[in-house]
Amino acid sequence: MSHEDVEYIRENVMAHNEWFEGCIPMIASENLMSPLAREMLISDFADRYAEGLPGKRYYQGNIYVDKVEIRAIELAKKVFECDMADVRPISGTVANMAVLFAYAQPGDTITTCALDQGAHISTCEFGAFGQRGVRSVNYPWKLDDMNLDIDGTAKLLRQVRPKVAQFGLSVFLFPPPIRELEDVFNEVGCLVWEDCAHVLGLIAGGQFQKPFEDGVNIVSASTHKSFPGPNHGIVLGNGLTDEQVKKIQHAVFPGVTSSHHLHAMAALAVTLAEMDVYGRDYARQVCANARALGQSLYERGMPVLCESLGFTRSHAIALDVTRFGGGRACAKSLEDANMICNKNMLPSDTSSVNPSGLRLGAQEMTRLGMKESEMDEVADLIARVVVKGEDPAKVKEDVKALKRGFDTLQYCFNAGEPAYKYRKLVP
Fold first, then answer.
1. Which pLDDT does position 130 carry in this prediction?
2. Phi/psi zone of residue 332: left (φ > 0), alpha (ψ -120 to 50 degrees), beta?
């Protein structure tokens, strides 16, 4: 690669960093790592390789890797109140693939949510589920509370008798009614699996649900959404048989991973330690901010879903912006004003390219120290663009002014450190 190529790449990365310093981040699937966790990503772990489990590696040179991974497993079990944790998946989708390989064969039936209900793409025919060759059957849905129809779901489970009942969403506003369906799961004899990628940090902080108390057998997740860790994955289990544990461990390696990105695993370990200390306060404020943002937007004429239920019990809110031009147009106008969110499908949408919805998340704004009063300011900025149709370039200057007061990380061991300090590349 030429020197000019390197300069071009570096300049664009630096431009991105500078841009985001003046942006209000509201993508529900993103967050900011702490300085200590980010430090792990540039350690020598980034250049090393490990296959297998701690103490049973196929390579030498993993003395300290094993120590870190064992501590990460111990912390995960403590934070998530479970008895099995595998920290080797390199992403949430890879974690999902591991569960599929472990517990479902091609042709097996799995019940799950549909894409327009907020499901993750890995559960679709063109995603991991389709690649595995399983038959996916979707639950009946209630738009008024963005959740499953309990009676209809119970009927469906008895009818199709799935090998696995899978839950989890990318628009995860309310806990699924898993506890209410426990008797049906037992009757059918299916494994209960929840993809908790979006709400993992809220679960760690005790603010969303306790999956394993509700009757979930296995949890998969990414670790960089409401959980403020690295781009990585995790699988958690409770009450699994020895055979079931061996199946998931074997599915992770050699099934869907080789080396498991040791630097990210170490960053995950640091984040687990931080969430053990700060997780409850962080998750509580995230949920409070999401509800406050929903209320403030609703008061300004924005059609926020589930108003009668308080909009959300998670970090995210969903809006139907059809009358303002749709999700695609609104997301682009907000980006032009330095407010970063995404278009999103809502029930009855047929196009993921031109959906009717917007999805907003409060987790990264909370990480930067914003609270309920700032959510009102953010809602006003959003409404100026979407409802009032103000010039995004004009609103952008007010966005930058608000963001200047929130440029340090909170809820971590380095609280108060500049959020973007470790994004400055050395010349």
1. 80
2. alpha
Could you report how far apart the first and last alpha carbons of the chain are, in Å?
A: 18
Cα–Cα distance, 40 to 264 (Å, whole number)? 7
The single residue listed with the structure tokens 């962080």 is 282
The per-residue DSSP string of 166-185 comes to: EE--SS--S---TGGGHHHH
Residue 202 near residue 221 (C-beta atoms within 8 A) = no
Residue 53 is inside which H or E element, if any? strand 52-53
Contact 180, 173 (CB under 8 A): no
**Encoded tokens for 298:** 């609703």
Which of 354, 395, 402, 357 lies closest to 376 in space, CA to CA? 402
Q: Give CA 94 to chain center in angstroms.
A: 14
pLDDT number for residue 419: 86
Cα separation values, 136 from 175, 184, 298, 419, Å:
21, 18, 36, 41
Burial 237-255 (b: 16+ CB within 10 A, else e): bbebeeebbebbbebbbeb
Q: Which of 206, 195, 153, 201 is nearest to 177 (CA)?
A: 153
3 Cβ neighbours under 8 A, 6+ residues apart: none
Name which of 262, 265, 267, 266 is nearest 49 in CA terms: 262
Residue 99 carries which side chain, given as an amino acid letter? V
Provide CB contacts within 8 A for 6, sequence distance 6+.
none
Q: How does strand 109-112 pair with strand 135-138?
A: parallel
How many CB atoms lie under 10 A from the CB of residue 67? Answer: 12
Question: Please, what is the angle between helix 372-386 and helix 392-403, to 10°?
Answer: 170
Q: Which backbone phi and psi does 383 adopt, to 5 degrees? A: -65, -35
Least confident of 13-27, 41-55, 108-122, 377-391: 108-122
Chain centroid to CA 106: 27
Nearest to 220, CA basis, from 174, 281, 159, 166: 166
Residue at token pair 């309920």: 372
Determine which of 91-95, 109-113, 126-130, 317-321 has the lowest per-residue pLDDT on average: 126-130
